[in-house]
Amino acid sequence: MKVVKWILVAVLLLFVSLAAYLTLVFDPNDFKPQLVDAVKDKTGRTLTINDDLEWTFFPTVGIKLGGIALSNPQGFDKANMLAVNQVVASVALMPLLSKQVEIEEISLDGLTVNLATYKDGRSTFDGLADSGNAQVETQPTTPAAESSGIAISSIDIGGINITNTQVETFDQATGVTQTFELASIQLSQFTLDEFAKLSYQFKGQLPDMLVTSEGEGQVKISSDFSEYELTELKVSNSVTGKSIPQGSMTINLTTDMSVNVAQKIAKLELKSFSAADISASGKVDVNFANKVPNVNAKLDVGPVDLDKLLASTDSTSAQGKEPSQPTGGSQTEPDLRGLKQVNGTFDLTIESVKVSNLTTEKWVMNTNLKNGVLSVDKLAAELYEGKLQASAKLDGRNEVASYQFNKKITGVQIRPLLVDAAEIDMLAGETNFELSGSGKSLITDNIKRNLNAKGKFAALDGALYGVNIPQMIRDAQAKMSGDFSSSKAEEKKTDFTSLTGSFSIAKGVFNNQDLEMASPLIRLTGKGNANLLSETIDYALTTSVVGSLEGQGGGERDALYGVEIPFAISGSFTEPKFALDTQALLDSKIKEETDKLKDSLFKKLGGF
After folding, report:
1. Considering only CA atoms, which of 242, 250, 251 is closest in space to residue 206?
2. Hey, which residues does 502 pair with through a beta bridge?
3. Angle (CA) 91 94 97, round 5°
């Protein structure tokens, strides 16, 4: 027992002697001038340490620093690039003898960082890189060198507490200043292979937006530092500003994250997400073992009302502003060559989407990205009692992207779709539509110009709105007969049993050469085009009566049976104009009167 007693006394005397030596002989403040001079020599900056450096001893050894500041280069508005109010770190001595690191607490208070970039290219980082000519020869690491290091069997941290951190960025070219405040980051007692509580509070002030965020979760690091986990991370964000829908938005999420450095795999599970009445869940797996990482993601989204989301934004931005004019040449081509930096798949489902009053349901999208080519293998949705099925490919490997697609719509009620999507009330009926095409460039006007496509359509048991062709024929025929009385007002609608045709799109022009419309009363055939750039229509059609016009309010004026009458459609997409060529009616009337005269003469001449 006496031996153990004297050993403990010897160890105690050793620590006391060490403390006395460090306190009386080795004063850390003696190195402050050397440290300041070294920083000045290497960077040209001034390092200031206002407070004295203080030792802490048994049962922990540590150091306390305060009043630290690093100056900005000359000519900058802010005197200091960074400043720290206080830093404290201490390590338990006894566990070190067993290669165990026990840190009581690491605390950092009052860190202030000022970052600026000026128009002439100067920034607060100038001179921080070593500009000396000294060359450092890097020796390859050998197993022997690795084994000569001190192996750490465990790490135990009493806690980490970072408070009152502020970062300010300034860009002189744009005049934009952004301020970020990290009120706190706190980590509870931390040990390898065990979960520890992590929490934070953050605030960011952008030019037109204020962001606040706070969250907490559980963090764990494996003893070999190959695995990192962050579980049950609950984050609550608040965003306010004029550009935000309704002026403010709350975003909440719960997620789990993990990284396996050895296997080079990262995983994220989005357990819940909510923002602006939108809810979602999903997961992301990343494999970064290869030069190009592979990302596989899946996201399930609930109902999405983009009209509600964007309504206040549009109204706010419109206040006090003149209508924007087309910029034409100011449009720039999006550079998608960055798509080559990642491969992967993305599967998306959305319960419903409402945008521009257009309502769709049960969205399913399966995409694949490989070597800069994005393929939409499946795109399906339900809309207006029908279905949409499509596939597409976007090639972003070149400076100007190219694309191709196939699209099919079946059983869709076209009238409510056109009204909701484009406020065009012109056509009704159950519609089937097929379209395939390709093009180059993603600028809006270029898409219209460069698109090359072919397709066909068929509308059944529908109507053309805005025109009543049978009534137009009746009115014109009555006037030819000398009846100039006003006709009874009727709905401007022409019913049909089928409306079919095929088309092509090239150089911004929709071209249709085989339009056919059939109904119990009339037949309509012809051809025409629609200019997608100017949004105008030019159709030359021929209509003929095949039944009694009484079907839409006519009397017995059906003498035009079989007579072909030219019919034209012109104007714009939103305000089409319809015109009937009365010359055919006049010719028919002259022929009718001539036939009557011939019959009368034949009778008078005895039938000859």
Report:
1. 242
2. 456
3. 105
Q: b/e string for 542-571 if b means 16 or more Cβ within 10 A?
A: ebbbeebbeebebeebbebeebebebbbee
**What is the DSSP secondary structure assignment for residue 243, as one 8-state letter?**
T
Q: How far is CA 563 from the centre of its chain?
A: 57
Strand (E) or helix (H) holding 583: helix 583-604
DSSP state of 123: B
Query: What is the rounded CA–CA span in Å between residue 382 and residue 389?
Result: 9
DSSP-derived 3-state class of residue 520: coil
Give the pLDDT confidence of 356-400 residue by residue, as tens digits. 778 899 999 999 999 999 999 999 999 999 999 999 999 999 889
Whether the predicted pLDDT of 93 surpasses 80: no
Q: What is the pTM of this model?
A: 0.69
Give burial (CB, 10 Å; 0-12/13-18/19+) of 174: exposed
Radius of gyration (C-alpha) of the chain in whole angstroms? 39
SS (H, E, C) 530-582: EECCCCEEEEEEEEEECCCHHHHCCCCCCCCECCEEEEEEEEECCCEEEEECC
Round to whole Å and give the CA distance between 41 and 47. Answer: 11
* Cross-strand bridge partners of residue 392: 376, 405
- Which tokens in the block code for residue 26? 């080795």
Instruction: Please name the residue that has the structure tokens 């055939």.
Output: 525
The model's pLDDT over 10-54, given as tens digits with 9 standing for 90+, comes to: 444 444 444 444 444 456 666 678 778 888 888 888 888 887 766
Give me 303's structure tokens: 């109902």
- The pLDDT assigned to 149 comes to 42
Tokens of 558: 């059906």
Q: Cα(21)–Cα(526) distance, rounded to whole angstroms?
A: 105
Distance in angstroms (rounded) separating the CA atoms of residues 553 and 445: 45
* Cα 364 to Cα 353: distance, rounded to the nearest angstrom: 12
CB 494 within 8 A of CB 468: yes
The gap from C-alpha 470 to its chain's centroid, in whole angstroms, comes to 50
Q: Which pLDDT tens digit goes with each residue over 281-317?
A: 999 999 999 999 999 999 999 999 887 776 654 544 4
Give the span between the Cα atoms of 450 and 505, in whole angstroms. Answer: 9
Decide: 501 and 516 in contact? Cβ < 8 Å.
Answer: yes
In what helix (H) or strand (E) does residue 43 lie, and over which residues does it extend? helix 32-43
Burial status of residue 372 (CB atoms within 10 A of its CB: 0-12, 13-18, 19 or more): buried
Q: Which amino acid is at 368?
A: N
Contacts of 573 (CB under 8 A, 6+ apart): 422, 424, 530, 535, 536, 537
3-class secondary structure, 10? helix
